[in-house]
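Q: Give me the 3D complex with pyridoxal-5'-phosphate.
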Amino acid sequence: MTDFAATKAMFDLPEGMIYLDGNSLGPLPKAAAERIRRTVTDEWGKLLITGWNKADWMGLPATIGDRIGRLIGAEPAHVVLGDTLSIKVYQALASALEMNPSRKIVLSDTGNFPSDLYMAEGLLRTLGDGYCLQTVAPEAIEAALSVDTAVLMLTEVDYRTGRKHDMAALTARAHELGIVTVWDLAHSAGALPVDVAGAGADFAVGCTYKYLNSGPGGPAFIYVAPRHANTVRPALSGWLGHEAPFAFDPGYRPAKGIERMRVGTPPVLQMAALEAAMDIWDMADIHDVRVQSIRLCDQFIAGVEGNCPELALASPRDGDRRGSQVSFRFKEGYAVIQALIARDVVGDFRAPDVMRFSFTPLYIDEADVARAVSTLADIMQHRFWDQGKFKTRARVT
Ligand SMILES: Cc1ncc(COP(=O)(O)O)c(C=O)c1O
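A: Here is the predicted complex, encoded as structure tokens.
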């Protein structure tokens, strides 16, 4: 059994704060500062350029990628880190489309994260020649799959509502129709058990700064199924995805396996923070995390519905159909979130009216949920949110 009191003690959370925004940016692992300091002082400071070999900076995207791979059910050596998630979406989609050259349609859902849709639009515009993006409601995805679909590109857990797709069932149906799948695991990795190998996913991508706690700007990851790893053609053919980067060959030859999905110089300082964060994951069993996350989410839903009748649940009630977050709709949701933050309960807001709260058992417990509920109830019952200072939108909501 995972000792959640022990994992909570590994984070440096401000005294008195209840942090329910780990689906946006995970908190600081206590060991991260020292780990980064060592990388800066002992490695960058003393080793300088030789750090790429002596401290194995060059190997970190694969070694840490493997640690993430264990959390998402990937086969060993099939996950690599680098770039941002938007870039990894583009990269996976471009390769997936090349694997299905006679088809032109990318299917996604209207709840997908806008950056995924924007990246697809940009890529398809470049490809020209009849390529198009088709989006349907999340519930209509299965019916919309057809023999004309080239790629199914979905985010498993909806960033707004927390609604979860059935990755195994949709992947199986897609494969029956000859469709290649790209799964975005931004709200899944570290939130719930994922089994990319078992589901037969072709490509999966995700970020590390949410549930994996790598810090702002932490690198993204990409998974390519072993059956494609040595044949997939990288569209972002950067030098570190080359078979022999230091041969400085003018022609591109992809590296073996997942290494070909690397693009350029990896972010060494961010990876140091991520290593510290992954040490905490070594203390946790993701199945325990899932059970406890559903329990905390259910506790929050019951508490809010019992005390705040103006708020409408926007997430599935059934824990098995949700990720690790709960969302409520309210027209003045932005102001409510600001009023909560002013009282040290941190959630966030997504336009037009969604208040999001994520429940991350590594550092949130039942007592935190109870305090979050009573604070929210107090703010709603006394309309504390109804003040000008809570209504001015900041650049990041
Ligand atoms: C589902 C999903 N996809 C893509 C992104 C974009 O990630 P990045 O800013 O790292 O490119 C996000 C960011 O939150 C996301 O939630």
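A quick observation: The two ends are 36 Å apart (CA to CA).
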